[in-house]
Amino acid sequence: MMKFFKSLSAASLFLLIAQLSTAQTLTGIVLDKITKEPLVFATVQISDKYGVITNDEGVFNIQTHRFSETDSIKFSSMGYDSKSFVLKNFDLSTIYLEEKIDELKSIYLVNRNTDPLMIMQRVVENKSKNYGNDLMHFNTFSRTGISNTPKDFELKLKKADFTDKDAVKAFNREIQNFSKQIRDKTTSIYFDNYSEVSINGDKLKVNEQKTTQLINREENTSLENLQEKVIKLLGDKIKTESTFKVKSGILPIDDEFKFEKAENLFSEKDTTDSNVKNNIKSLLSSADLSKSNEYQFLSEIENYNYTLTDVTGYQDEMVYVLNFKPRKRKANYQGTLYVSADTYAVLKMNYELAEKKVAEKANYKFLLGIKYVQDFNSGIIIYQKTGDKYFPKYIQNHTNNYIYFGRSFSFKENAPRRDRMDIKLDFTIETNVGSRQELLIVDSRRITDEDYNAAPKSQKAIVEVIQKYEPVLWESYNIIAPNEAIKGFEF
Predict the structure, then answer these.
(1) What is the pTM of this model?
(2) pLDDT tens digit string along 191-206?
(3) From which residue to which does the signal peptide run (predicted)?
(4) What are phi and psi of 54, to 5 degrees?
(5) What is the extent of the structural domain holding 66?
């Protein structure tokens, strides 16, 4: 992290100050005053419910056009003293926060009888009281980053009666060369969205305002794209407009497939990776602790060891800091919980798979030619109080999945049997697919049933495909500031 801070050139700082001068978008970095390390996911807010967070490099962007110059901007982070500035006087590109020092630690040292298991029991008892996503309205910014790293890639054309054996061998050599080029090469896709959301229990209305996808189509090494490229290479050899019946093993896939439209063979396209509404609904559902049992360390506390390591403060609340790790074999996670000493609400959680644990796995290698192992799963959720309930301010989930896919494909031309073209090929790939989902709640407020009913129906935005990150595309939106990987992405 220090390397990132030191790499900020004079030109970069000048750009930050120039952006501040517009009085529309404030941009800067939040650091620990002593260590000069970036404060990741610190809160930057202008009113009780309007605000953003810093990214994983401590950088923030926030829009100010809806506020007057006499309003205040506040910076806060767990365990640090908050700082506030009047907007008209705010001209900083770097904000330093000091670690919170008060009497809480002394109280903690005296009260040795504070039992971490008792705290967790109170957390469980108060979940339905502290959480609930019913009847809310808010704006969201979501970012999904997907990385693909092929570890092994093999394709063999076994039968092709449209050409001779030498041509088949030449095609297989071409595929081998292609395999060498992509092996261990990581490519990434970033999918950004800004939406207006209304929620009523399990019902959700999502009015998408803007959606972009940052992608290099030619270099993309996703499973779907690799299959598509191979089929297109084969189509270039065949040069036919005929349609084909396609099977994978004994499973029919398509009855009217055309090589000139290879994408028809694959139902899921990485260019429209996410259904925004479903992603938002899934993340919010998992964060609603009044209903969700997704997190073992909050629902199966008898399987975990909890240690009270500190007491601190955050936004006028006394906070217990508890570390947790597996106590029994079926417990999978370790991490840290920040719990309000008053309401016993979890204000923030950090979690990750413990050593040698996996989140999910399935092996249908011999039956369906598929093996799947999720060997990395970590996350962060930060809550903010809205009325008498705690509602998520920021949700992040980061996973890595090992995928083995081995299939045979047969293509039979829709033509009389004696003239029919038959093609058979074997396709095998082992790949690591990383996914990082982030959801920022920019502002939130309670609404009524009438408000929800009056909200417009869900609407999708046209996906704007870009090959280089352009800050101007998001200059009037509250977003999670792009990190260096995104800013440096260019085709």
Answers:
(1) 0.84
(2) 999 999 999 988 999 9
(3) 1-23
(4) -75, 155
(5) 2-101
